[in-house]
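A common beginner's mistake is to predict each chain separately and then try to dock the pieces by hand. The better habit, illustrated here, is to supply every component at once so that their relative placement is modeled jointly.
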Amino acid sequence: MTERISELMLERYVAGSATADERARIEAAPDAMARVAELRRDDEALLERHPAASVAAVVRARSAEAAKKTAPKPFLWLVPVVAMAAAVLFVAVPREQADDEIRLKGVQPRLSLYRQVGAASEKLANGAGARAGDTVQVAYLAGEATYGAIVSVDGRGSVTVHAPTHGDGKLSQRNEVLLPRAYTLDDAPRFERFVFVAGKRPIDVEKLRKLLRDAPDIEAEKLRQAFATTVDVFTLQKEP
Amino acid sequence: MAIDIEDAYRRFGPMVVRRCRALLTDQEQAVDAMHDVFVRLMQSGDRLDDRAMSSLLYRIATNVSLNKLRTRRRKPEHADDDLLGALAHATSLEEEAGTRRLLGRLLGGVTESTTTMAVMHWVDGMSLEEVAAETGMSISGVRKRLRTLKERIGARHTEVADD
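With all components supplied together, the output reads:
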């Protein structure tokens, strides 16, 4: 009598997640192995026709759209932003929560950066080395600030506004907020600088963009003076 | 840390497409459904081992496909389609009843998870033991749910096999 092997078990075999017992049962059944070969050919065809990067982009967009629909109080920054490099590899869409308007008194606004390492991430230190192709996720802590802007500039002087993309840049007061997209660094030399200007009133983003475009390595103190508020600068040193 | 969607797709995406295609019998709709499946995975936010992820994706793919079946008009092409339509509709009834929660309780609910079990057992041909293992329920629990569902979808689907 031929053993019946479910399609799910075959799928698991192809995906490499079958148990040892399941593998043995499948490998002992010629019909099952023929089906496995068919599935593998279909895998190749599907992945070629629908590449992972394009599927992930659609998934991100639909997920962001769904999050906006279900959020009790959508955070206005959480919309797609222009990628600063050629490709956007992954997105960490924070679960939406109501902004409770509670300020973190005594806590300075600050930036954090994370680098994707396989399926995990590592928190980067300010001044850490980074290479073209690294995927980084920007996060901020609002602290006492109510409004903010996050803008980056690279060693070529290319400026990217990460937030706000529209609206007045009101900050979420959750402990740490991930921007909706992560970015793949391009091959710009020397550095990537991320500047977070935060204060009690909306930030003049155009002024910040112009300052960084005209002087990519402008000192943080000069930015503080220019905006008369808190500035946090996070720099990644580009390695060849 | 969020689930790495690209990695999950490379490993299990083709499985999801095939699952959706088998139920929807339409490649284009299956690919559309696959995207929805990974959106749901992303929203779950759970980090899972490979086996748990394949189980979860298979169940989500089944649910998403049933939802799509429910919202499209189509002529049954073979017996399984007819049965699938009935199962999808059974879930729809439950959702309608969900707006009238008390009535739903009185009628005895047919949940999305029950229709997923039904598809696994009646359409995919998985044994009660396999369905129980996939859904984390007892065999008797699966049997009971399917019996209730069978009563609900009625005598016009007599091709539904006895447990």
